[in-house]
Specification:
The complex is a heterodimer of chains A (about 300) and B (about 500). Chain A has about 300 residues and is mainly α. Helix content of chain A is about 75%, strand content about 0%. The chains are: A mainly alpha (about 300), B mainly alpha (about 500).
Chain lengths: ~300, ~500
Amino acid sequence: MRKNTDPQAAMKQHMGLKASTRITNTFVYVLLIVISIVWLIPFVFIVLQSFRIESTHQESYLLPKQWGIDNYIHLWHTNFPRWYLNTFILALGVAVLQTIIVLCMSYTLSRFRFKMRAGLMRFMLILGMFPGMLAMIILYRVLDDLHLTGQYGNVVPGLLLVYVASSGMGYYVSKGFFDTIPKSLDEAARVDGANRAQVLTKIILPLSKPIVIYTTLTAFMGPWADFVFARYVSQMYQDSLNVAVGLQSWLATDTMIFNNYTYFCAGGVVVAIPVTILFICLQRYYVEGVTGGAVKG
Amino acid sequence: MKKYDELEYLKLSKWQKFLYKLLSFFTSVPTRIWNGICSIGLFFKKIGVGIAAEAKDIVTTFVNGDWKTKLSYLVMGFGCLARGQILRGVLFLLFEIVFIFYMIVFGAEQIGLLASLGVQGPAREYNAVFDSYQTQYHDNSFRILLYGVLTIFFIIAFLYTWRVNIRQNKVAEQILRSGKKLKSGKDDLRSMVDDNFHRTLLALPLTGILVFTVMPIVFMILVAFTNYDAAHNGYTNQLFTWVGLDNFKTMFTWTAGGVNYSAAFGEILTWTLIWAFFATFTNYFLGIFVAMMINKKGIHLKKLWRTVLIMTIAIPQFISLLYVSKMFSLNGLVNGFLMDLGIIHKAIDFWGTPTLARIMVIVINIWIGIPYLMLIATGILMNIPADLYESAKIDGASGWKQFTKITLPYMLFITGPYLLTSFTGNMNNFNVIYLLTGGGPTNPSLSGAAGSVGHTDLLITWLFKITTGSDTKYYLASVVGIMVFVVVAVISLIVYGLLPSVKNEEDFQ
């Protein structure tokens, strides 16, 4: 602890502090600019390379010598549209169903106090410690028995089933949200003669727009990024891949990279654009969900 | 170790305090694990006591009950039907009929086969239609195990329903004795959206979890005790069967010069822990740092900086990971740049050099992870009461001191549970490792172990490698899976007790 009894000295120190603040602020600006560049650069590169038409492989320069949309046109003549459609349908289905399941689960665990509640939550915590990949081997065999794998050209229903079925385990974030809605609202409605289902549909749901959007958004984004299980189930049949597995297959070997690199970039851009636009529009809800979720644990 | 009381502790110097804390943490680890084991024991004891109480209740209900109740022990739902609760009665009865039918037609046989997992494998047999010898397939070990597990689940469900049926009779008798009316079917339906609304809501999610998470896990745990692999796939080549603890022995024994899974396991586990540690904490501290920079007073365009980082979350990870991985490949962009600039003359093999590859995955993971951490940290930083900083400033605390004495403790307190889940999440972070390096570069000293183990392989990617390709060893994969669970559980058990937000949530405020 320092004490400056001399007012002039204190004044001097104050001025010095201001100058030093200016220096640190400049420093912070520089750092932030560097960070922004580092974080955005790969995406800028992808976009640039997706417009390069003079060669399909990796080059050591960045700006295309010949610009064109040939890579995008080429995408049409590959299996890419099919992959895209698979993933899109899957993402829509998952977004709707998973949201319903997660909300049912989290609302119940937040609002009701029943006998098995604590046990159930602990059980799911322990269940979550098993690597999910373990279950994939058997789920894959079961789906194969049900004719829902790549060799039957019919992967979407099976993947949808598996994605949605266990999604109840991810209830933490939305439970945290429901915990913050005061219980007195429920009680008031109950006094007015509403039953519990009406409390949910008439009182709570209208207040839950942020968490519904957050849950739907994350559910929608899931299938675009899933790699392992989609790959298992597709058995690498071209018609049954999702975008992640499909685009990865274009870069599987060095020869493939040589032939497909710019197509991969174009495909990546096509995949990223709609998801990114959606995400930027709903950013606010996403941020609320993530920050809330981490605070509640 | 010497235990200090509070006064003695305060007299210690900074270093001694730190040392003391560290020591007391490590000496408490065995106790924590022991407590964990004890609590498992207590759990089973509780279950035992519970079952005994239930059994006693079942007997007394039978002895004290009227004839309707007594008949319900045999014909489920009879009591309900006889007392006019048609809906309940019909449901109970229906369930019993379905169960008995299932057991007679299918279930009993499956349970019988479960002990051997099938007797007759595929064989060359004379086929009269084709007038030649054809391969005939018989038992299917996989299905036997699967349906066996399903049947056991079904039996448990039946026993539970039977028990509920008996309790209902007891309750109904009590209600009638006290002169009140029983609930009608209409009342029951109404309670589904009211008093029993939680059951209605939970029915679907819990069924999903039971069928698609619990059942597969039980199944895969059982597989660890069989010899299920590519050569014993249970149907088209050889049946698989129970082998007891052999797989665990294979995994953990050391034979000089032979195939040593224990060596592979030890090495991969070590790297998995190192990776999880660095992946979690580099992201955590750098994320806080970035968030603090953006939140700093006098910095403009806060929204822009944040949006730039958030945008990178939106782009599906596989695209950025694959792209970055190729960017650093031998003939990739980075090597090209560096060579064109004349900084290096020979391409750097980022993914082919063990240590470099390991550093690269950690660094690229920072690139992936910071936006999330920035978001989380921003939310929390804004919640720290500003007057804490004001008073610190008045006391002349430097920026660093404010960080270590206010910001960091606050963050650690709030995000303790998050740190734990993100540590265990990183242990199982398949995508980052697999899409960046595919587990490579291959580690020649472990070439004997299944699935060509690489230097950046985590347990989870190793598990994946064992279960794909031509030489699949499902039994080994499930042993690895169980070990992952054990490691995660032990870490959680140790750390959970340390978390301040679990212990004294009220104290902090």
